[in-house]
């Protein structure tokens, strides 16, 4: 749920992008963008105590602009 009380659905077997991290949680975004029905592509908040409940794997990469891909 976003800090502004926006309800979102975390889809299973799907990747999300962490856009910001804080000691008490993370801000994530669905890379499918605004056309998805789960969260309309908006950035939303996941409290630290819910991260293990919502996600099973974490992958870390360099920002795309630093990766040499573009």
Keywords:
3-stranded antiparallel beta sheet, 70 residues, alpha+beta, 3 strands
Given as residue ranges, the uncertain stretches (5+ residues, pLDDT < 50) are none
Q: What is the terminal-to-terminal distance?
A: 33 Å
Question: How would a textbook summarize the main sheet?
Answer: 3 strands, antiparallel
* SS element count, helices: 1
Q: Would you write up a description of this structure?
A:
With 70 residues, the chain is of the alpha+beta class. The chain has one helix at residues 48-54; strands at 17-22, 25-29, 43-47. The protein has a three-stranded antiparallel beta sheet with strand order 1-2-3.
TL;DR of this structure?
The chain is 10% helix and 23% strand.
Strand-helix topology:
Blueprint: E1 17-22, E2 25-29, E3 43-47, H1 48-54
Antiparallel strand pairs: 1-2, 2-3
């Amino acid at each position: 749920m976003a800090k502004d009380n926006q309800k979102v659905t975390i889809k299973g077997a799907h990747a999300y992008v962490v856009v910001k991290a804080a000691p008490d949680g993370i801000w994530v975004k669905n890379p499918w963008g605004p056309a998805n029905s789960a969260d309309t592509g908006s950035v939303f908040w996941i409290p630290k105590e819910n991260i293990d409940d919502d996600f099973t794997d974490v992958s870390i990469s360099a920002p795309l602009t630093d990766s040499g891909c573009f």
